[in-house]
Design goal:
Layout: E1 12-17, H1 20-28, E2 37-40, E3 49-52, H2 54-57, H3 67-73, E4 78-80, H4 84-99, E5 105-109, E6 112-116, H5 121-124, H6 127-142, E7 146-151, H7 154-163, E8 169-171, H8 177-181, H9 194-203, H10 208-212, H11 216-223, H12 225-234, E9 252-262, H13 265-285, E10 288-289, E11 292-299, E12 304-310, H14 318-332, E13 339-347, E14 350-351, H15 364-382, H16 390-394
Parallel strand pairs: 2-4, 7-8
Antiparallel strand pairs: 1-6, 1-7, 2-3, 5-6, 9-13, 10-14, 11-12, 11-13
Helix pairs in contact: 4-6, 4-13, 11-12, 13-14
Length: 405
């Protein structure tokens, strides 16, 4: 296994906030509990689903689905606009609770993180006991439900977190990795979408065990280098390249994996807008600043590309982050290849109190930064107020650019 170190058995948690956006809405609005809650654009407006509750998923609703299609499948659903500030507030609170269990918490997105729990048995008991304590603490402190996957590496922990959802807790023991993987359907391997399943079916591969029977070179020859390498490692429970072996220093990032690979420009742009707000508000809240914006794209064939650009000034607002990643998107995406995952990051962070050369003339982005900082401060003081950028609420921009609202 990767990430092994010495003779100490490695233990990782992957923690998901179950149906996070919808769960927050059901927490704040008890009348929505038990109902199919769909977050995104409102019916009758152009836009896509940002998130949905498990009750909505029963009807086939998923993220990145056009709202019109979601409404056709679930016309009796509760349709709500996103409240990113509220989600960010609760995300930060949950991540702080994770930090009380492990010094190595890597936040993957607003609702996911991995924890290195190696060597914590004397503090929290067995990994299963520690996971139960963490689940109880999050529920008591926030009212939210988490699923925890436990495994010898981060990739298997991710799969384990999905195995028993919602409100799950599942452990993959060292030495039992392949036994666990063989319980999964091919579609349950993280990153394997419909097109990949269809291609594997054409080859005659229908189970994880069958996939593991192919050499890396043969998979590369049949599926391409990126997909072949990814699937070779995934079928063995190794990190297929999703997680770096060392935590990224001085960076803030967030990612979104689409429920179905998409070439829908509107869905991709809306996801980037959402992620831009996530990273910018984390940056403001944690008192960091950056000049460098990074875009990450993973395509349907598992190939991954990143692009970044460094400005001559510190990034001032979520809108500036968004406009920057849109420019990077135009350079790196041909507009037709299906996209599996998008990510936005701020790198080479500096603390906000470090001295910097001031600009002779301010710009509109700096004004937006002051507004966003004020909104964040107000939101904290009001504990869940509903001030949200209009473009994240309406999803009905006639121009197709959410930032224009």
């Amino acid at each position: 296994m990767d990430e092994a170190r010495g003779h100490t058995e490695k233990v990782f948690f992957h923690v998901d906030l179950d149906a996070f956006y919808a769960a927050v809405e059901q927490l704040d609005h008890p009348e929505h509990r038990g109902k199919p809650v769909i977050i995104g654009a409102l019916p009758g407006h152009r836009g896509v689903v940002s998130a949905c509750s498990y009750e909505a998923r029963v009807f086939g609703v998923h993220s990145a689905m056009p709202i019109s299609q979601a409404y056709a499948r679930c016309p009796h659903g509760v349709y709500l606009v996103p409240r990113m500030k509220r989600y960010s507030e609760l995300s930060k609170k949950v991540m702080a609770l994770f930090g009380s269990f492990s010094p190595d918490v890597r936040q993957i997105s607003i609702d996911e993180a991995t924890l290195d729990m190696t060597g914590t048995e004397r503090l929290f008991g067995t990994p299963e006991e520690a996971a139960r304590k963490l689940k109880t603490m999050v529920a008591e402190e926030t009212g939210l439900i988490i699923s925890v996957g436990i495994a010898p590496n981060r990739y298997l922990a991710k799969l384990a977190s999905e195995y028993d959802k919602p409100d799950g807790l599942f452990r993959v023991h060292c030495g039992k990795e392949e036994d666990f993987l063989d319980k999964l359907a091919l579609k349950d391997l993280w990153g394997v979408g419909e097109k990949t399943l269809a291609r594997l079916g054409e080859i005659g591969i229908t189970t994880v065990a069958e996939l593991r029977g192919y050499s890396q070179s043969l998979l590369q020859a049949m599926l391409g280098n990126a997909a072949g390498t990814y699937l070779y490692h995934a079928a063995r429970g190794n990190n297929p390249g999703i997680y770096s072996l060392a935590p990224k220093s001085r960076s803030i990032s967030s990612e979104l994996t689409f429920g179905v690979d998409t070439d829908d420009r509107e869905a991709i742009k809306r996801a980037l807008l959402d992620l831009s707000h996530q990273v910018m508000f984390r940056s403001i809240d944690e008192s960091f600043k950056s000049k460098t914006v990074q875009l990450k794209l993973r395509y349907g064939d598992f190939s991954t590309t990143t692009a970044q650009t460094t400005s001559g000034h510190f990034i001032s607002s979520a809108e500036e982050v968004y406009n920057t990643v849109l420019a990077l998107l135009e350079k790196r995406w041909n507009g037709s290849d299906a996209v599996r995952l998008v990510g936005v990051g701020l790198t080479a962070l500096e603390t906000a109190d470090e001295p910097a050369q001031g600009e002779l003339f301010g710009d509109s982005y700096e004004k937006k930064n002051r507004v966003e900082s004020a909104i964040l401060s107000y939101h904290k003081s009001r504990k869940g107020g509903q001030i949200v950028k209009a473009s994240l609420l309406k999803g009905n921009s006639r121009s197709g650019d959410p930032a224009n609202d």
